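This entry is listed as follows:

___
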Amino acid sequence: MTVPERFSWVVEGVIAGMERPGLFSSFEDDLEFLRGEGISAIVNLEEKKYAREYEGFIVKHIPVNDFKAPGLEDFGEFVDFVNGRLAESRRIAVHCYAGMGRTNLMLACFLMHHMRIDPGTALDVVKMKRPFHVVTWEQEEALRDYFFMIRDSLEIPGLRR
């Protein structure tokens, strides 16, 4: 079974990022790979939903325009979906088109909550785990804005308020 070109775990066995299924190989092969990894939930960050079904997967569509920043509510919707699936012991894959911008931004958002870290550190962790990284300044700024909105609930050690 072939690993999708930009697939990588950000938290091993919990949440991964990748390109759109079917971008570099067949759609069916990519979904079969995800099943083999035990992934049963997918977050699609592309602008449009797919015409094809993700049979056997729980799919959350959060449309974000390519190279643009998600809205603050999109970050919250993403975190709520991911936390709900983790409570069900599901593994999650996150993707946009190429798996380098919106995907990595949302994975950093997850890490802010999961690891209780600031946005800069979260983006650094994602860069280490996913060398294909093209997050724009506008996207980083949106992540910082979201962080300032929710930071009181994160209880980050050493954070000055």
The domain at 8-150 is CATH 3.90.190.10 (Protein-Tyrosine Phosphatase; Chain A). Residues 137-154 form the longest helix (18 residues). The chain has five helices and five strands. Helices lie at 27-36, 72-87, 102-115, 119-129, 137-154.
